[in-house]
Amino acid sequence: MLTAHVWRASSTVKAMSDTILRVEHLKKHYQLSGTILGRLFSRGRAVVEAVDDVSFELKRGEVLGLVGESGCGKTTLGRTILRLTDPTEGTVIFDGEDITHLREKELRPYRRKMQIVFQDPHASLNPAMTVGKAVGHPLHIHDLVENEEEAKEEVLRVLREVGLEPAEEIYDRYPADLSGGQKQRVVIARAIILRPSLIVADEAVAMLDMSVRAKILELLMELKGKYGLTYLFITHDLATAKFVCHRIAIMYLGRIVEMGLGKEIYAEPWHPYTKALLRAIPVPDPSKRRTKEVLRGEVPDAIAPPQGCRFHPRCPEAFAACGWEPRDLLDYFERQVTESDISRLLGPLDAMSISGSSLLIPVKGGNGERIDRAVRSLLNQSGPISDAVQDIDVDQNSVRVTFREPLEPRDLEVQNRLVACHLFDPQVHPGSEGSSSSP
Ligand SMILES: Nc1ncnc2c1ncn2[C@@H]1O[C@H](COP(=O)(O)OP(=O)(O)OP(=O)(O)O)[C@@H](O)[C@H]1O
Ligand code: SF4
Ligand SMILES: [Mg+2]
């Protein structure tokens, strides 16, 4: 039986000493006021909700995969956790210490313990710095060595550790002399030389050739075993995450929508977005026949994310409560109104306007009743959009279609898994309580 509880960040805190990172209700919103984009939005104020109320914790030695399409906020979340960018709201607790508001000087000891490996090793390395200088640089910054010889000894040891041999030769080379895989090994060497406890690996293998990817992943896992490293493993690729992650967090437009043990999520994804991502993985075995299915549409703009459930315009399982709003009806008209009679009757779509939760369709020459009938007939074929309409009113100026208040999915805890979808919320979807399998 699936029983849902509302997920609270603090409910996951068991005062366990093996929790290395705890993130509570973290938000990172970018204000675009003053920019061209900002001016396009109302009163010059546009906000990108890149990370919006994210909570999770990481156990020491764990690999948590953070997965989602491009623009979902993965990098922003990684950077905010490491305090490379300041959070808008929320808390980051690293090694039992609240680091959310520490100043740069106070952060220094923590910086040593938290490292990031980016996707593009080429861009991560200064072309004018030899490998030896680049990898040894953090030792000097953190005053961990007395002199150059000591630094060199440590650098050579780490180069060997990441498989860059002969280390003495590589030490004097420049990034341009190295292959992509070797460069990423240098970046990893530079990250581990400080003996960190947490590494954010941000698409760390995405730019490498297939043949090199597996080797770098193996290296990352080998280092984890040796040093008890913890990884936040960011990837848009669920297939790669399956290879290395204990737990998986699926991110969509700034929010974590499903999180749980990798093996359970791969065996039975619950959130419709996770299901769609998994269906999008090509199946290598031709006998299994399933072909890769493309996820419908694109990730919407994070400046004005869809209301209610942010996934609703793309969700194949969406129903009335999922957050349908006037712009969905406009999109629907755009797709459906092909008949010239109806099109003439409704008039140009850009003459329609949105006021709060209503779409206003202008009425001319007393044709309000006809427009009302046409809208109702179109809505009848629109599935969940129609179910979300609260009222349709006609007056001499417009036909007003008003939607019910959008409802954001709560973070629910269902059998040790977090899932943020109305289908699992007994208060919204009565069928979800007491069902013996996932919806
Ligand atoms: N400095 C910034 N200023 C304004 N908006 C930003 C900034 N950095 C990121 N964003 C926006 O925040 C959202 C999340 O971006 P982010 O790079 O975190 O996504 P991502 O999941 O890492 O994507 P990708 O898979 O392409 O790397 C996007 O809409 C992006 O345009
Ligand atoms: S709440 Fe669930 S069913 Fe509704 S749109 Fe979102 S993911 Fe789909
Ligand atoms: Mg990114």
Describe this structure as you would to a colleague.
The chain is an alpha+beta fold and 439 residues long. It folds into two domains: 265 residues, P-loop containing nucleotide triphosphate hydrolases (Rossmann fold, 3-Layer(aba) Sandwich), CATH 3.40.50; 80 residues, Gyrase A, domain 2 (2-Layer Sandwich). Helix content is 33%, strand content 22%. The protein is built from 16 helices and 17 strands. It has a nine-stranded mixed β-sheet with strand order 1-16-17-11-10-4-9-8-7, sandwiched between helices. Strands 3-2-5-6 form a four-stranded antiparallel β-sheet. A hairpin with a 2-residue loop joins β10 and β11. The longest helix has 18 residues. The protein is elongated and about 90 Å long.
Name the features.
Gyrase A, domain 2; binds adenosine-5'-triphosphate; 439 residues; 22% strand; 4-stranded antiparallel β-sheet; binds magnesium ion; Rossmann fold; alpha+beta; disordered C terminus; binds iron/sulfur cluster; 9-stranded mixed β-sheet; 16 helices
Q: DSSP strand (E) fraction?
A: 15-25%
- In CATH, what is the class of the largest domain? Alpha Beta
Q: Tell me, rounded to a whole number, the average pLDDT.
A: 90
CATH fold label of the largest domain? Rossmann fold
**How many domains would you count in the coordinates?**
2
Q: How are the strands of the largest sheet arranged? A: 1-16-17-11-10-4-9-8-7
How many H/I helical runs?
16
> What is the annotated CATH architecture of the largest domain?
3-Layer(aba) Sandwich
Q: Structural class of the helix and strand makeup?
A: alpha+beta
Distance between the termini: 11 Å
Small molecules in complex = adenosine-5'-triphosphate, iron/sulfur cluster, magnesium ion
Shape: elongated
CATH-wise, what's the superfamily of the largest domain? P-loop containing nucleotide triphosphate hydrolases
Most strands sheet = 9 strands, mixed
Low-confidence stretches: 11-16, 434-438
Count of DSSP strands: 17
Radius of gyration: 26 Å
What is the helix content? Answer: 25-40%
